Structures are given as C-alpha cells and as structure tokens.
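thread: overnight batch results

M.L. [08:02]
morning all. the overnight job finished for the chain we discussed friday. pasting input first so we're all looking at the same thing
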Amino acid sequence: MTSSKIRVGIIGGAGYTGGETLRLLLLHPQVEVVFSQSKSQSGKPVYTIHKDCFGLTDLKFTAQGNEEIDVLFICAGHGEAKKFLGQNDIPSHTKIIDLSQDFRHNESNSFLARKFVYGLPELNKDAIKKAHNIANPGCFATCIQLALLPLAAHHEINSDVHVSAITGSTGAGQTLSETSHFSWRQNNVSPYKIFEHQHLKEITESLVQLHPATKPYVRFVPYRGAFARGILATVYLKSDLTEEKALDMFQSFYKDSPFVHIVPFEVDVKQVVNTNNCFLSVNKIGTELAIVSAIDNLLKGASGQAVQNMNLMFGLEETTGLKLKTVAF
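M.L. [08:03]
and the structure it wrote out:
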C-alpha cells in the first residue's frame, strides 16, 4: 500500500475514455490528478467539456503533459499513443497505462525500451502487479474473453466459438461519423466488421496463452446498438460439459476476481452500466454451452479497467475507487 497519493496525468482528457478516467481518478482516495491534457481544449476548464465535473475540480486542460507524475494514462486514439511516446521524453520511472490498441498484441508490445503487459486482470493479475507499462484491453475483447477464459484454462474449447455482441455508440469514440449520429443510430441496429473485428486478435492471443496447443476459430458478429453505453455478448459453442460442471468451472476460475460475477438470472446491460462489473450467465442448451456476458464499455471495457490496473500496479486494493452504483431504471 502506498503511503502518499499517486500523482497522475491524463493524455487525451477531452474524449470519452479520457473523461471517464478523469471522473474516476478525481474521486479516487489514493490519487492526485496533476494534469489532463488536450490539444484542442487547452486552457479551458475541464468542466467546459465534462460538465458533470463542475464543482469536482478546478483543473484546466493543458497543451502538454510533462509534469512529474507517477503514472500516465494515455486516452488518445489508436495510433496516437505510439506517436505521443515517440515525440515526448517520458521519464523511465513514470508508469504508463495505454487505452489504445497500439501495444496490445504480442508483436507490438515493446516500444522504446518499454514492454507492455496485456492488462486483463482476470488473465494476467500477477504480471500486472509487477508491470511498468500496461496495454489496456479493448471493450469487446474484455466482454468476450471473460466469457471464455475458464473454458480455455480447462482446455474445454474444442469447437468453433460463435459470438453475437452489441455495443453502445460511445464505443466508437467522440469523433462524429454517420453510424454514431443520433438520427442514424436511434431506432436502428446494424452489424459491422463481420468475422473481421480488430479485437479478435487479442481474444485469440489470450485463449492461446491459456491453451497453447489450440487456436480456436472465433466467429464474431458485432452490432451497433441504439444506446449510448454497454456491451452484451452471447457466446456459444459445442460442449460435453454439463451445466453444473460449467458453472463450477466459472465460479472457481473467478473466485478471486471481485468484478466478475456468475449470476443465476438473465443478464442485461442495465445491470452493469456505470459499474466495473462483468455479469455472466452460463447455460447448457442441448449440445451447446451458452454464456451471456455484459459490461460497461467505458468502465470495465476501458477506463474502469485502467484504474483497476493502476490499483494492482501500486499495491492498492483492486476495487479502490471502483465501487460504483449502476442505474437500475
């Protein structure tokens, strides 16, 4: 446990994940937020963009982020983290938690003498505790992996894995596009990147990490949903396991994971939105094992998981600053 507060900086503080990270850290009992950087909003009070932060902080966005800190959260877009680190001399003692996909994969996890650990606590908790740099997982990847890790660990993925998953519009980031525009998204749903989503690579790498002798084929169909936040994934595969055996396997695997819960009811998005939780239901239907997984894409799928990783890196209780209330209605 650290005796003094952790000094934190945020790069890309004006976006969705930057704002969500800032909100969590402003209320974290062991953190002092030193700066929140945004080139486009430099000099403006944080509340001009994140209006719900009015009264929480007097911080203004900065153009640079070079003050002395203990850990840097990089909440910039994909490709921007590598560019930022290449253009800025970050002291070697400063820890980094990157929320982009720049360092998530085996072939891209080293950069400028920094080695990034894949930051899924339910998979790599011991490595995260010792890590100096973290590549935070993708939102879809987190939701889907948590539905599959126990099966991979017990070598129980012996057929193609089918995934149908839907995400809220915040998963596309803050930059406007046709498919994130309200008038298009409302009362609408559409698939995209069928079998080709970028998160498939990190999902497969994690499953192979637990069971090196296999490389399962994950058939993933993502959907854009007509809601702002949350992910619901239905994952199914052929299995010889009984429902009772599968439930025991999942409960045992996640017994030391405070944010993953095996629930005895049907899962929906509202149960987990605004929390760092993942709810999983496990059902055997005929020859198929079906796992439904739900997370908040901005919390367990991004900023909440990043803070969870920070807690582990600095020897704090994993749940510190993350005991959050959902919206029930």
